[in-house]
Write a structure and sequence with these properties.
Distance between the termini: 26 Å
Strand order of the largest sheet: 1-4
Shape: globular
Number of helices: 7
Structural class: mainly alpha
Strand content: 5-15%
Helix content: 55-70%
Largest sheet: 2 strands, antiparallel
């Protein structure tokens, strides 16, 4: 994936896992078509589930702060500072991690469930705009 500008092994694995829908450690046409279909034609819940699964690195249906940090740090290494659709600018991974975690970890149990994730996303204009990118 270096040719695509992704030379971080963690991010390469993350992209691969998002297409390997059956967990077979290979991507067949069905995996590819299924993932592409969700990205381009999926409803909000399907897109949210796909995004949630990218963060949930150990597949236990929860996102921990450590999992979130791994993802965000990889993203910052890949693209640098982030400006959201609403104009918020994050120049460090840690500030972006704090923002996301504080918004989504509403049960105070140290992890983000899909329900927390979906509820927060449904009222966050940046996430809502991001879901519309492929519609």
């Amino acid at each position: 994936m270096t040719a695509m500008g992704i030379d971080d092994p963690f991010m390469q694995d993350l992209v691969f896992r998002s297409y390997d829908s059956d967990g077979s450690d290979s991507i067949n046409f069905s995996d590819f078509a299924s993932s592409l279909s969700v990205q381009t034609r999926g409803d909000s819940d399907e897109k949210l589930r796909m995004a949630f699964n990218m963060f949930d690195l150990d597949n236990d249906d929860y996102i921990t702060r450590d999992e979130l940090a791994q993802f965000v740090e990889g993203l910052f290494n890949l693209i640098g500072p982030i400006t959201t659709f609403t104009g918020r600018r994050y120049v460090s991974a840690e500030s972006f991690i704090d923002y996301i975690y504080d918004e989504m970890e509403t049960d105070e149990d140290g992890r983000i469930s899909f329900e927390n994730y979906r509820e927060t996303a449904s009222r966050n204009p940046d996430i809502l705009q991001g879901l519309k990118l492929y519609n």
